[in-house]
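Lecture notes, structural biology module. Today: joint structure prediction for complexes of two components.
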Amino acid sequence: MQLSLKQQISQALQDAVDHLLASNQIEAQAEVVLSRPKIREHGDYSCNVAMPLAALLKQNPRQVATSLIAQSQFPADVAKTDIAGPGFINITLKAGGESDVLKTILSQAGQYGCISNEAGQPVCLEFVSANPTGPMHVGHGRGAVVGDSLANLLAARGYAVHKEYYINDAGAQIGVLANSVWLRMQELQGLSITFPDSAYPGQYIIDIATSILADEDFASFEAMDDETRQKELGQRAVNENMAMIRKDLATIGIEFHQYFSEKTLHESGRVNQLIEKLQNQGLIYKGCLPPPKGKEIEDYQPTEQLLFRTTDFGDDVDRPLQKQDGTATYFAADIAYHDDKVSRGYPYMIDIWGADHGGYVTRVQSAMKALTGLDKQPEILLVQMVNLTRDGQPFKMSKRAGTFVTLNEIVEEVGKDAVRFNFMTRRVESQLDFDLEAAKQKNDENPVYYVQYAHARVNAVLRKAKEEGINIAEIADVDTSILRSKEELKLIKMLLSYPEMLATAAERREPYRIALFAMKLAAAFHSFYHHNRVIGVEENLMQARLLLLKASAQVIKNALALLGVSAPEQM
RNA sequence: GCGCCUGUAGCUCAACCGGAUAGAGCAACAGCCUUCUAAGCCGUAGGUUGCAGGUUCGAUUCCUGCCAGGCGCGCCA
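The predicted structure, tokenised, for the full assembly:
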């Protein structure tokens, strides 16, 4: 396998480090890590290894750096090496080669920055998984957008990504849903009802009731016993809600490979099998849990339950697998679900959850560690809350009053691109402030337009070139090395760093880096555009700049595609 | 009370998983449209990185303790 230039340089230094340590009979290791200096004068790559090494050798770091450089066999592309500051080794590459990237970008087009790995590792990415008891709200939207972009990102880096939605279509909440619908059906029939606080408010329940009554006879439901009716209506309502959720997801460009029903885990006996399996492994016992702290429970009754020994694997307390009535807890089904993923052969599992499920992370990971021995599997990304505002004023959202804002309302108001991009501009660990008025504005407050505008501007120049009958040269015939202005070099450097950024973003599961990169790239482009004319300059320079424009547009388009945001040619 | 997340310029956020002079955008002030889209460019100003210790040659980053905000804490999901 061929080493990249960075790897060659790193290797050369590492050899020198190892040699120096060996000749001083020191067993400790020192790893060479190359970083990109912020300041241009510090070269193309910088290495700090002389500092820790100096501590081991008890020598002056600058002196250590000197001997490292003397020992290293650098590849020919290294122009010079410097020792700077306390003992940094700064490496400067021969100039001129960078602009070759423009041709690479145009030949690889949509594939630039991606790696195709035929043995692509399968990864199961579970996200959204909003309960099928109502429409998705803004918080779900953030998780959805992050998850979908992460899926695109991992796919671009060669993983075989499987996008999965876990439908929580079992348990008490579905009963509540069924009852809510039944009450509305009775109401629509003119019967007088009292709608309790515990039922789901919201127009969509009435819509579901209406739709059921349109298809079927009210009397047939009236004739059913309570249990049958609850089951029937629960299933109907879940189906309707899922159809609505899928439609809303499709509106922002998200589709899943699989929708996995929790109910099927119970019905197929999968959950009970799992409990048996755990029992055989001695991971379960019957016992009582201490009362929860910090939350007053008036009628707390210590009861004996089936408990999973998650404390042996890092959890705070053991967790119940069965409720008092003997049915399985959500936790039990969730382990069965993850166990199912393991059995389907995924070496990587990533779950994206809302921050309100944070208390759940350790227990699921502990349980899975007990089952598989693997640590930190699944990887769980917690997406923090979205604070919705309008002109800086917070929305008062109340589920009970039914005044929460749905994702779809927001998308309709500000548009898919603005929603998707804005949700991607922060790390998932940070809470996100989303202002509806700001997201609608087409100005500097709104980064999505800034990026899209850069793409549109390139196309405006290309249109103009076409109008003027300018012949665009063959890529191979263009000399890109004449691009030497400050703005051109900066833009080329940005384009060059795109694959590295993608690699970092994928490794760390941080797709927000794509959005930040897109903004920086757009800034570099706008700066270039303002300072350098394309059409009308000397022929060779014009051809080189046209190439630079096309390459810039290509990378912007690639980045936006990963974010699920369109790249318009005209604005 | 405990656990997780967050705290960086007036505001919203970066800082390449310990590096060099902590960077952008907005807001403020000052400039740039007879030339490919001004949805743009360019300059100035703005900092005790919540506080206090510690580890280190070196800390926004790691550790400890506080402070503030968010989320959560059996038989809901």
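Point to remember: Chain A has a mean pLDDT of 90.
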